[in-house]
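Example record used in the benchmark description.
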Amino acid sequence: MSSVITAFPKAEDARRIQAVLEKHGFEVAAACTSAAAALSEMNHQSGGILICGYKLPDMHFSELRECMPENFEMLLVASERVLSTVEGSDLIAVSLPLSAYELVNTVAMMAGSRSRRKKKLRPKPRSPREQIIIDNAKALLMERNHMTEAEAHRYLQKCSMDNGTNLVETAETVSYTHLRAHETAANLV
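Model output (structure tokens):
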């Protein structure tokens, strides 16, 4: 699960939000009262969500957003008046007065979105059989077309993308085409 960090000028606001989130199963890594403390906490985490007010004692939310690590998303908590001035940006925000329901659902949505992106970024490991198919196709390309291993791999990747197939299917096609060509040549002799 993503780390959640809260940052509000008043410690009691940060703790109140922390309590609501923890009551609903979220783990809050830190409740901060300054942007510097929030940045320090974010740098110790592998990623997550920063929930903050629009103005901290040492930094405005827009400056904090620019300084945040890329693996963190911001959830801004502010009045409707403030939020109307930042519309059009890709910022996720909830307005004051804050309802626990809205806060919890927004954080759950953000955490779910982060989790799906993480899963998408991690390629599924290949089975030994799939790896053998790819290795055999690369060996054929290296032998027949005098390619290096890297060139053969790039060729398979390019064909895979061009044809809209996965790498294993492309490797099977290369091997099958080679086998058919070899059989045809043998029949001609």
